[in-house]
Every structure is written in structure tokens, then in C-alpha cells.
Design a protein that fits this description.
Helices cover 77% and strands 0% of the residues. With 339 residues, the protein is mainly alpha-helical. The termini are far apart.
């Protein structure tokens, strides 16, 4: 029985790796079969959809499976104790730092966010990760360093981490756990109650991982499809000239919040949005205003909100968006003031 499960697991891992490595060729093949190219708006949007949908679903399945196995080793209480943040927000610092080394877009970060929640990690700590992972990762820092130098990259790193940590601390202090969807809270309670059972075998651990995937992926996949579809539709139609016209260095004070509002409906990762940032700055846009736009695109995207709706109730989503937006505004104004 155990040997058969391990064999199936090995096959599943190989197929997962092969599928993840084939994401771009798969999207290219679909676009070619439809008679389109990425040089058109429709072709770019569809390519994005057929690339990002399997990517996010693969990440969700893999991460949730691993978290399901980890749950059989570590009690939720121990996880909460590790990342509780009681000592000056150390849990938030750890989670935000973890986000730096996970090069996820906002929707790709949601699977690990869900895994943290299901493991009993405090809500504010999970939000520090969710904000940091797309906004402050090595891809964004490397591109900013290459385009604008180490001072801009370092300032972005410091302010981005500050937004992630402070926003997580604020959300944690507000005690909004009641605004998690009922199925998430029930899962947390069930896992806490079941941990005192006899230590499971490896076969049972693998079964737990599979069960975890069925419970979570089975609930959130329609929201993932809807969120990525929205993002793909917008991704192919980025109005650079219009945005540059309201982000100029001599623009009024409201240009920063306007840039944030414009960025929210869009969807991209750091690697995808930084070329747009470079183009906007080349057209005379202010660096702080453009970086605020960039942060809103990758940390407050509408597709991310659609996916999170399956996990969080509206008051918590609104609080998350408001706190992060306030932090992004501060970053924009600071950059404009010092550079």
C-alpha cells in the first residue's frame, strides 16, 4: 500500500514539474492554434490567461498538498506560536522577509496565503506575506537596480517591507478573524482538534495532503479562473500614454492617489509591470507616482480581490485594500519628495 502511494506521488511530482516547465510553450501553442499572435491586444490577453491559469492552479495544488502533509507534523498551535508576532511583530517581519524570496504575482501568492491561514498562522502575519510576496521580491529589486540604481532599489525595498509589516500589524491588531469565510475557520478548528490523535503513518500523511487539496482547491478554483480572466482582459490593453499624462513631475498632489486607483483594476507581476514603469518614466512621469502605480498593480489587483473573496468576507477585503493603499500613497509621496 505504502509503496504504491509513493510510486503515484513520484509520478505526480514528475508530471507537476513537467507541466510547470511547459507553461509558456503551452500558452504559445494555444495562441498559435487560434491563429493569433502576442503582438495583438487579444493575443496578448489570451496568452496571459492560458499561461497564468495553469500556473496558479499548479502552485495552489502543490502548496496546499505540501501544507496538508506539514499539518500532520506540526500542530497549528506551534505554527501560531512561531509566527505569532508577540515580540514587536517578529512574525510579520519573518513573513514579509519570506515574501522577498518568493517571486509571485498577487494571484500566485494567494495559494501560500491560504496555506498559512489553514495552518493557523495569525491573520495579520499572513497579510504581511501576501503584501510582500508580489510587491518586494528579487525580480522587482533586480530590475529596479538595473534600471534606476541601488539607491532606488534600496529605498523601494525598505518602504515596501515597511508597508507589508505595518499593514499586517494593523490588520492583526483589528482582530478581524471573524471575517474569514466560515469554511476557513472550520478547517482551522478541525485541524486543532484532530492533532492530538495518534501519530499518522506516511501513507496517512499523503492521504491528508490529497484531502487538503480536494477541500481547498475544490472551493477556490472558480474564483481563480474568474480573477485571472479579468486580469487577462485588462493585461492586453495598458493605456501607457494616458497614464503618463497624469503622472508627470509637475502633476498636482492628487496624481499619486489617481495612479493607485488606475493600477488596481490591472494585473501583472513585477517583471511584467517594470517595463511599463520604465516607459512611463521615459515619458516624463514622476518616479514616486509611477512606483505607487506599480505597487497598486502588483499588490492590490482586482483579480487578487476576486480570488480572495472565496477566503475573506468583504469587510476584511476592504480593510486590507484600505490599509495597503494608504501605505502605497506614503511610498509615492516619499519618493517624489526625496528624488
Amino acid at each position: 500500500m505504502m509503496a504504491r502511494q509513493l510510486a503515484w506521488l513520484l509520478v505526480a511530482i514528475i508530471l507537476w514539474i513537467a507541466a510547470y516547465a511547459s507553461l509558456i510553450p503551452f500558452a504559445d501553442a494555444v495562441i498559435a492554434a487560434l491563429g493569433l499572435t502576442q503582438k495583438t491586444h487579444l493575443g496578448e490577453a489570451l496568452h496571459f490567461f492560458f499561461y497564468d491559469t495553469p500556473k496558479v492552479l499548479l502552485l495552489l495544488t502543490g502548496i496546499v498538498f505540501v501544507m496538508g502533509i506539514i499539518h500532520t507534523f506540526v500542530a497549528p498551535e506551534r505554527t501560531r506560536a512561531l509566527l505569532s508576532g508577540k515580540r514587536l511583530g517578529i512574525g510579520n517581519v519573518m513573513a514579509a522577509t519570506l515574501g522577498i524570496v518568493t517571486p509571485f504575482c498577487s494571484c500566485s501568492a494567494v495559494p501560500l496565503f491560504i496555506g498559512f491561514l489553514s495552518a493557523g498562522v495569525p491573520l495579520g502575519v499572513t497579510f504581511s506575506f501576501l503584501i510582500s510576496a508580489p510587491m518586494v521580491n528579487e525580480v522587482a529589486l533586480a530590475l529596479l537596480f538595473g534600471l534606476f540604481g541601488w539607491k532606488v532599489a534600496a529605498l523601494y525595498l525598505g518602504l515596501g517591507l515597511s508597508v507589508a509589516i505595518v499593514a499586517g500589524l494593523i490588520i492583526g491588531r483589528l482582530g478581524m478573524e471573524k471575517h474569514l469565510e466560515d469554511w476557513v475557520r472550520e478547517m482551522q478548528a478541525t485541524q486543532s482538534a484532530d492533532y492530538d490523535a495518534a501519530r499518522p503513518t506516511w501513507a496517512e500523511r499523503i492521504d491528508a495532503g490529497v484531502r487538503h487539496v480536494k477541500e481547498i482547491v475544490g472551493k477556490v478554483w472558480p474564483y481563480i479562473l474568474a480573477g485571472i480572466a479579468i486580469g487577462a482582459g485588462i493585461h492586453g490593453y495598458v493605456p501607457e500614454d494616458f497614464m503618463a499624462s497624469i503622472m508627470g513631475k509637475d502633476a498636482p498632489w492628487w496624481s499619486v492617489p489617481a495612479a493607485v486607483l488606475i493600477g488596481v483594476p490591472m494585473y501583472s507581476n513585477a517583471a511584467g509591470i517594470i517595463p511599463i514603469v520604465e516607459a512611463l518614466i521615459g515619458k516624463g512621469a514622476a518616479l514616486g507616482t509611477v512606483l505607487a502605480f506599480m505597487m497598486s498593480v502588483i499588490a492590490l489587483s482586482l483579480p487578487e480581490m476576486v480570488i480572495l473573496r472565496k477566503v475573506l468576507k468583504l469587510p476584511l477585503i476592504a480593510t486590507f485594500a484600505g490599509v495597503v493603499a494608504a501605505g502605497i500613497l506614503v511610498v509615492g509621496y516619499v519618493f517624489n519628495a526625496v528624488l
